[in-house]
Design goal:
Number of strands: 4
Strand content: 5-15%
Number of domains: 1
Structural class: mainly alpha
Radius of gyration: 24 Å
Helix content: 55-70%
Oligomer: single chain
Distance between the termini: 52 Å
Shape: elongated
């Protein structure tokens, strides 16, 4: 049975930055499409009414709340989908990481959603819940503790089962090691 090492803070941080970059790009594209549709729709109607709406603070605050909720839904959906299907977001795939339950079993969509909501708790107080992984014995952030998950280093992407989690045991491969079959060239001592 292969043994996997818990992922450290910096590796997880880089994966999270990659994932948030992807989320920001998706959000920006969808936001621009919505803005273009809004302005095209507003231009076909009464121009003075939508300009007055843009200057109204109550309308702007409700729009800002809608934008924030839209970003929240995209973020929760992104992490829930990827963690629920494979346990790996694109950022985690690039860095050889995977989210699994504490017992090594795959994460379900319910646990993935709980973990995604836990991101709100981890980020609520100066991102202390994320930083916690750098000091925790099991390298768990607050959202990992809430959902009962761990992030492991999993370089081999074809391996699916038999995960055993260790804090300091190095990764061992289930595939037998091949001996070096480099052809030996006889030396000529002339």
């Amino acid at each position: 049975m292969p043994v996997y090492k818990s992922a450290g803070f910096w590796r997880r941080f880089i994966a999270y930055l990659i994932d948030n970059t992807i989320i920001c790009i998706v959000f920006f594209v969808l936001f621009m499409i919505a803005m273009i549709a809004f302005f095209i729709g507003a231009a076909t109607g009464e121009e003075s009414a939508w300009i007055a709406d843009l200057a109204n603070p109550t309308k702007i605050s409700s729009v800002m709340i809608f934008i924030w909720l839209f970003l929240l839904v995209i973020t929760l959906g992104y992490f829930t989908y990827f963690h629920g299907t494979t346990g790996r977001t694109p950022g985690k795939m690039l860095l050889g990481l995977q989210v699994v339950n504490e017992d090594g079993t795959p994460v379900t969509f319910g646990i993935a959603f709980l973990r995604s909501v836990g991101y709100l708790v981890s980020g609520a107080i100066f991102y202390l819940g994320f930083i916690w992984a750098g000091f925790d014995k099991k390298k768990q952030s607050w959202h990992d503790k809430i959902a009962g998950t761990v992030v492991i280093i999993r370089e081999d992407q074809n391996q699916t089962g038999g995960i055993s989690i260790s804090e300091s045991t190095p990764v061992s491969s289930a595939a037998p090691q091949q001996k070096d079959e480099t052809p030996q060239v006889p030396q000529n001592n002339n």
